[in-house]
Amino acid sequence: MWTLLKRINQNLVTAIPVMMLLGFGYGTLYDPAFLKNLIVPLTFLMVYPMMVTLNVRRVFSGGDGRAQFLSQLINFGVIPFLAYGVGRLFFQDQPYMALGLLLAGLVPTSGMTISWTGFAGGNTAAAVKMTVIGLTLGSIATPFYVKFLLGAAIRVDLLAVVQQILVIVFLPMALGFATQQALIRRYGQQTFQTRMAPRFPGLSTLGVLGIVFVAMSLKARAIAGAPDLLLAILAPLALVYMANYLLSTLLGRLLLTRDDAIAMVYGTVMRNLSIALAIAINAFGPQGSTAALVVAMAYIIQVQSAAWYVKFTDRIYGTQVVTAAA
Question: Which of 2-11, 100-109, 111-120, 285-294 shows the highest mean pLDDT?
Fold first, then answer.
């Protein structure tokens, strides 16, 4: 089972489109309304395992202050407003589509931030720190960004959004940290890191795939009635991601070392779409499924682009220099 989950986690490029197709087929043939009951447990399955493996203590280590500052400046000073502006441009008469684009740009970093940084030969310690800081700040800031930017276009129940974030982010974070400490006390740090921690991302992936399936099922008949809808969603998403890559890469090359620059790119481009999906579906009523469709489509661009960026890393930053041990 664990081997299968690991293989799925390593092949999200294929797994997510497959689940979208399955969700589309199911939602077209059957009534998917009951699937809404699965949203909360799938959300917990998505978020909790990631929290178990986060090393929160690394937040307090030093040495990469400039990279941390630049990443959070991009995450909270640029990308939300970029996503909002692109949403206004492409979805003038579809505020919940614009909401989906905004949510996709509001919660930075995921467990894959660390993984992709490692694949590309970047500073994984800095990536861990960006993940914890970005996730925490993004969860706190999201309700206020949504209210400030889209409060005039859609009904935003600030308290409801805050409650959902407490349930789907901070509760799993607390339980995940408690689980991590309990496992370390019982089995030791070495056993936890080598044997237990690698299993949790696969469980999180099951939650992600389940939520993608549900989101696609709920909008399947709307898509079937307007198949050009998917292309209309992909275009603004691609624009936001492209601008994010270009900005982060340029600043990284100009201001950071190679390893820190790679961490910053993945610390800004990789958004926590799992949490964005959960907020869209849980906090905005029936119209939230429209926003969730945009977030679900973002998975395709995010995973594909991250994989391609790894392939071009050496061309962008030069070959990694490995220092021989003395």
Answer: 100-109
At residue 326, the pLDDT reads: 38
Residue (of 48, 35, 32, 65) closest to 168 by Cα position: 48
CATH 3.40.50.10800 fits domain 2-29+41-313: no
Instruction: Enumerate the domain spans of the chain.
Output: 2-29+41-313
pTM of the model: 0.80
Q: Is 113 in contact with 133 (CB distance < 8 Å)?
A: no
Q: How many CB atoms lie within 10 A of CB 310?
A: 18
Question: pLDDT tens for residues 19-49?
Answer: 888 999 999 999 988 887 887 788 788 778 8
Q: Which residues contact 98 (CB under 8 A, 6 or more apart)?
A: 84, 87, 88, 90, 91, 150, 153
Give Dmax (Cα) for the chain.
66
What are the structure tokens assigned to 282, written together?
């849980």
Size (the chain), residues: 326
